[in-house]
Automatic annotation (TrEMBL):
Name of the protein in question: Aldehyde reductase
Organism: Oceanobacillus neutriphilus
Every NADP-dependent oxidoreductase domain range: 11-266
Cited InterPro entries: AKR, NAD(P)_OxRdtase_dom_sf, NADP_OxRdtase_dom
Gene3D superfamilies: NADP-dependent oxidoreductase domain (3.20.20.100)
PANTHER family: ALDEHYDE REDUCTASE, OXIDOREDUCTASE, ALDO/KETO REDUCTASE FAMILY PROTEIN
Pfam families to which the protein is assigned, alphabetical: Aldo_ket_red (PF00248)
Organism taxonomic ancestry: Bacteria, Bacillati, Bacillota, Bacilli, Bacillales
Length: 280
């Protein structure tokens, strides 16, 4: 389980980038979301940017008959909506599309030209009035989160959502250690490198194929199990296929041995120096 705020959550959720954009896939995507929620997944991650609201609309339809308290909803707002009155308008639009009165977590999608203390002040106000339960950030590097912690209310940040997978381990050099020290959880997007050309190198890796065979699993399940190997990372792979959703759920029970972790380390070594934050 992963703790976000006061919630202990299943460590694998569903990312929804590109979902809701194709009418021909709509029913399949809704079925996949409902299947995930009915079989152990709690977290659904979206953003106003995804299809300019298409993803949120899709989710709203998918969850309308599911108990709201069984879902942990995350959405994100554009950096150019990070000040009033645009921020409140973005929040209200997201709530309307999702068909809910509140978000469990509301994230600044990436750094904004608006002073962060202004944005935090608004987010804290939304927490107090109940429209969001927690707020966080996305695509913040080490200096960004350290600067945030110095601001009034900055210590209330609930999570930082960043790119993290076997082929993209840059955050392990200093960002993850800094967040561990402050008990700030990480939400890993693209944990199986979907949408990332580096994922092609992983999918064909012979060592991973052998490890997957030993666990009677797919390479993607091994990648997920690796991403959540610590208890402060929540992974949000995107999937609109019920079979893949079930495989993602099953990945939580895969425990990689120390020997297997060392083999993976040899194939995809941890960074030995600071690298720019990866973003896709």
């Amino acid at each position: 389980m992963v703790q976000l705020g006061k919630e202990n959550l299943f460590p694998i959720g569903i990312g929804t980038w590109h979902m809701g954009d194709s009418p021909s896939k709509r029913n399949q995507e809704i079925e996949a979301l409902r299947y995930g929620l009915e079989n152990g997944i709690e977290v659904i991650d979206t953003a106003e940017m995804y299809g300019e609201g298409n993803s949120e609309n899709l989710i709203g339809e998918a969850i309308k008959d599911i108990k709201r308290e069984d879902i942990y909803l995350i959405s994100k707002f554009y950096p150019f909506h990070a000040q009033e009155p645009e921020l409140e308008r973005s929040l209200e639009n997201s709530l309307e599309r999702l068909g809910t009165d509140y978000l469990d977590l509301y994230l600044l999608h990436w750094k904004s030209s608006t002073p962060l203390e202004e944005t935090i002040e608004s987010l804290e106000k939304y927490v107090k009035d109940g429209r969001i339960r927690n707020w966080g950030v996305s695509n913040f590097d080490t200096a960004d989160v350290e600067g945030m912690w110095k601001l009034k209310g900055g210590e209330n940040c609930t999570a930082n959502q960043v790119l993290y997978n076997m082929a993209s381990r840059g955050i392990e050099y200093d960002l993850l250690p800094a967040q561990k020290e402050k008990s700030l959880p990480t939400i890993a997007y693209s944990p199986i490198a979907q949408g990332d050309t580096r994922g092609d190198n992983i999918a064909g890796n012979k060592v991973l194929q052998k490890i997957a065979e030993q666990h009677n699993a797919t390479i993607f399940q091994i990648m997920l199990a690796w991403t959540i190997r610590h208890h402060d990372v929540l992974a949000i792979p995107q999937s609109s296929n019920k079979k893949h959703i079930q495989e993602n759920i099953d990945a939580q029970s895969i425990k990689l041995s120390e020997e297997e972790l060392q083999l993976i380390e040899k194939e995809f070594p941890a960074p030995k120096r600071k690298k720019p934050l990866d973003i896709i």
